[in-house]
Amino acid sequence: MQKLHRRFPDAAITAAFKWMIIASVSAGVAVMHMQSPPVNSLSLEFLTDVCIALEKLEMDKSCRGLVVTSSQPKVFSAGLDILDMYGKSPEHCAEFWKAVQEMWLKFYGSDMITIAAVNGSSPAGGCLLSMTCDYRIMADNPRYSIGLNETKLGIVAPFWFKDTMVNTVGHRTTEMALQLGLLYSPAEALKIGLVDQLVREDQVLTTATETMTKWLAIPDHARQLTKSMMRKPTIDKLTSNREADVNNFVKFITKDSIQKSLGMYLEMLKRRKA
Amino acid sequence: MQKLHRRFPDAAITAAFKWMIIASVSAGVAVMHMQSPPVNSLSLEFLTDVCIALEKLEMDKSCRGLVVTSSQPKVFSAGLDILDMYGKSPEHCAEFWKAVQEMWLKFYGSDMITIAAVNGSSPAGGCLLSMTCDYRIMADNPRYSIGLNETKLGIVAPFWFKDTMVNTVGHRTTEMALQLGLLYSPAEALKIGLVDQLVREDQVLTTATETMTKWLAIPDHARQLTKSMMRKPTIDKLTSNREADVNNFVKFITKDSIQKSLGMYLEMLKRRKA
Amino acid sequence: MQKLHRRFPDAAITAAFKWMIIASVSAGVAVMHMQSPPVNSLSLEFLTDVCIALEKLEMDKSCRGLVVTSSQPKVFSAGLDILDMYGKSPEHCAEFWKAVQEMWLKFYGSDMITIAAVNGSSPAGGCLLSMTCDYRIMADNPRYSIGLNETKLGIVAPFWFKDTMVNTVGHRTTEMALQLGLLYSPAEALKIGLVDQLVREDQVLTTATETMTKWLAIPDHARQLTKSMMRKPTIDKLTSNREADVNNFVKFITKDSIQKSLGMYLEMLKRRKA
């Protein structure tokens, strides 16, 4: 928390979780600082925290907007934690996948205004998290990238990842991006509409809170009904297929060939670190 | 009518309604000049006239194209008439909403080539009307704006307004535009595809009739079948839900909180005028 | 074959059909050279060959990618062969249409990576063929054009042509393109996303094989599942409506008025040639 206070001395911390801190920056606006070292991987534990935090904020009627950002350097979120899908029991994989679904359902269907302050790289599940928000501001640093790169790991983004991306950048761009597992530079992401705005790295969070002001000017009930109208069909598709989607994931991820791919990927990450 | 003749001395007036004049500019092409002072609000009376006029033109097999434009200065249409939703009985609101639906169904499903000559601002229902047309030409005057700004008034664009906009500018742009109630300048509207072409203000109508020539070169039956194929799913969604949509509107618009919002908005308009 | 060898001396011909040659350019990549003089019209005979060739390639597990290109000068494919719809029995028209459907189903649903090397004009069915591929590279020659121009001939692109185009360039662009039967220059096609890349005419095929390398880097099973997820809903729509779609086509195309239009078009083509 000290660390957060050093960075944002004016922010009042309203809730602290193991992997994140919720701070209040101004009337009605919370900021979720993800701090799950080293790269904010979306582990089962982390996702559980995120969902509890989001639920609390959703019930707090004084909270109208949420900024999601990272306290880790260079990364927004590295996406789903592979350690929760590698060498784990089918039961564990199922529990993990339900948590991923829950995170998506809560964010994509949030009544709050949600803005992603993408202050670092954001592959796979990190990209998904940012796409669930109402607006995406990314640091204009060419070393960062964003995209759903699952195929490069030999795995497949599920239909609701795909639907979220189609809703964001359209069918054709999604088709090519998902097949090739493309990671976009900030400039490319802006061009295809995967992010809405690029700013200097040290301006990401302040721009997010300034942008929030514009969204807060809209009467909540009208904005919420409108948001729901836009997103409900996509949300309903998962809601009515959650169990089949879990079974599908477990069956796929526990395959020998897929486990082998994940193992090789983890080895590669280790070598890169060393 | 004198006024119209001063503006378009060559146009033969073929039908005159209380709130609009239908002129014939060339073989097979009619122009609907909306003139419901001061801002072409889409009142129940006005909508009824529009529907009767459109029905007549549709049955007149010699009429293949229709240009819609405004005879009022600075405005194409200010959108739905709030006086038909404020302080009115549920029955009146229901009748009004049926007329709005009817207008949309007739325009969006028209067998004629329809071109909007947007020679002024076009918020809310005015934007909807222009989006039902096959092509939109707007005056390149930065003081004009166009968009579905319902949320700013605390109300919500219904699903078929939303569907029409998604069909025009895509899902993501619609999601943000509707949530924020965005009004776009002509240049911005061109960029997102909300209008197809910008021309000097005094060229809007002539460009519309020139553009019409290009569309008239296509065999009617092939063009009509193609247009229907593109729009039928969207039209069917409303056709099979008209009554529920009316009930939904009446229930929403007669709420105390919404009536209060509308009242405040009307007060604001009065003050602005004074 | 001699002719092909003169053009691509390094290519090993792996299969020769009456109207096309399949060559192997590198490990796992085949090139389909269409050579049905003069303009690669998609006749019943040609389509039958294409489907047999594609089926064989699909079953050959060593073949992972397919480039489709033309051996005819100035044209990729002129589209459906009008001689198979003009003055023919309803039975013949039905058989022809089934072959068109089959071609589309096989290409749009192909497990292989498919790249269109559009080295010439590509109207109507030629445009459709290129749109079924995963990537489109076009020769940057302003004399070439591409688009679904059916309405200009008085006929109508069926719903699955339309769906393919909507998936490629979006709803609004498709609505206008199909109504007006627009043919786009390479530069315009790139701008609306109808093709993905423009290169010098003599670089089309080499760029296609270079691009293929990028796609081959993705694990097949992940790419195939992703491709299927993107395209299955569109494919299912035709699969479950094939017979109705055939009947619809036969009923439409055998109409006196449509036959007359096709006859006039054929006369015009003859005069143009003379």
From TrEMBL, chains A, B, C:
InterPro entries per the UniProt record, alphabetical: ClpP/crotonase-like_dom_sf (IPR029045), Enoyl-CoA_hyd/isom_CS (IPR018376), Enoyl-CoA_hydra/iso (IPR001753)
Stretches that traverse the bilayer: 12-34
Keyword Transit peptide: yes
UniProt subcellular location: Mitochondrion matrix
Catalytic activity reported: (2E)-tetradecenoyl-CoA = (3Z)-tetradecenoyl-CoA; (3Z)-hexenoyl-CoA = (2E)-hexenoyl-CoA; a (3E)-enoyl-CoA = a 4-saturated (2E)-enoyl-CoA; (3Z)-octenoyl-CoA = (2E)-octenoyl-CoA
GO biological process, one term: fatty acid beta-oxidation
Main location: mitochondrion
Function: Key enzyme of fatty acid beta-oxidation. Able to isomerize both 3-cis (3Z) and 3-trans (3E) double bonds into the 2-trans (2E) form in a range of enoyl-CoA species, with a preference for (3Z)-enoyl-CoAs over (3E)-enoyl-CoAs. The catalytic efficiency of this enzyme is not affected by the fatty acyl chain length.
Subunit structure: Homotrimer.
Name this protein carries in UniProt: Enoyl-CoA delta isomerase 1, mitochondrial
Organism whose genome encodes this protein: Neolamprologus brichardi
